[in-house]
Amino acid sequence: MRLPWKRLLPAFALAAAMTVVPAAAASATSAPTSGWNNFSCHPSAQHPRPVVLVHGTFANGTDNWLAFAPYLVARGYCVFSFDYGMLPGETLIGGLGPIADSAQQLSDFTDRVLAATHAAKVDIVGHSQGGMMPRYYLKFLGGAAKVNALVGLAPDNHGTTLSGLTAILPYFPGAADLLRDNLPGLTDQVAGSPFQQTLNAGGDTVPGVHYTVISTVYDEVVTPYTTQALSGPDVRNVVLQHLCAVDLSEHVAIGLTDRIAFHEAANALDPAHATPSTCLSAFS
């Protein structure tokens, strides 16, 4: 599924560009700046950690964040996003490669962001697979020393049953092998897959990282939605409808357009200045 945002990209890009201090001026003054994929960005004292955004399956580092990246930029953050999990020959749709390989791509990109911004750590916000995959980076690739917080928007932290559809794979000989060989990023997300077993063995979290999970009861992709929650110390699991009962966002909208979810994610990035997320947050 291709996300229906390409025709809006110029307008969003212009809006994001308008928030960026020219690189030459920033370099000359070393003043705090903000921006989206502006590698001359200087984090401020209020927001000292750059934010790395990690897209979901069938998405990319631009389309997934056309609303949320400018939302953070307007609040003074240095924001970065990237593409991962692209299959050979693909330039638009990501999140389909082996998730362990994608986690290494996240590791490499995080190192690039840290080197450019001279920050000690980053914060990560991910949507769907992008909220789960970083946990492999934290747990197995040394990411815990470089990440302060991980915020997941509808993350498939324990895989998904796709409302029970994955249970029918054994009844179609060769179907599971076909998916594994051609779309390993999908089979890694099936509940009970070898990847999921490896990721969650020994506990959901690692010490030193602050975890926030934001879910919606209307999620039709990561099912059941309750499996998105994490267990362990320094974990906050939030259900969107507990913040605003009339919020109808499902799996895609929670990451692409829902400003109540955005507000709660921003709270997780800056808990010292957090304000209650309510239905009114949709207008803030």
Record field, number of beta strands: 7
Helix and strand element order: HHEEHEHEHEHHHEEHHH
Number of helical stretches of at least 4 residues:
11
The shape is globular
Overall mean pLDDT stands at 87
Main pleated sheet: 7 strands, parallel
Question: Separation of termini?
Answer: 30 Å
Topology at a glance:
Blueprint lengths: L8 H9 L5 H7 L5 E2 L14 E4 L13 H6 L4 E4 L17 H19 L4 E6 L1 H12 L6 E7 L21 H8 L1 H4 L6 H7 L9 E6 L19 E5 H4 L9 H4 L2 H11 L15
Helix pairs in contact: 4-5
What would the keywords be for this entry?
284 residues, alpha/beta, seven-stranded parallel sheet, 7 strands, globular, disordered N terminus
Characterization of the model:
The chain is 32% helix and 12% strand. The chain is an alpha/beta fold. It has a 7-stranded parallel sheet with strand order 1-3-2-4-5-6-7, sandwiched between helices. α4 packs across α5 (129-140). It is globular. Residues 1-30 have low confidence and may be disordered.
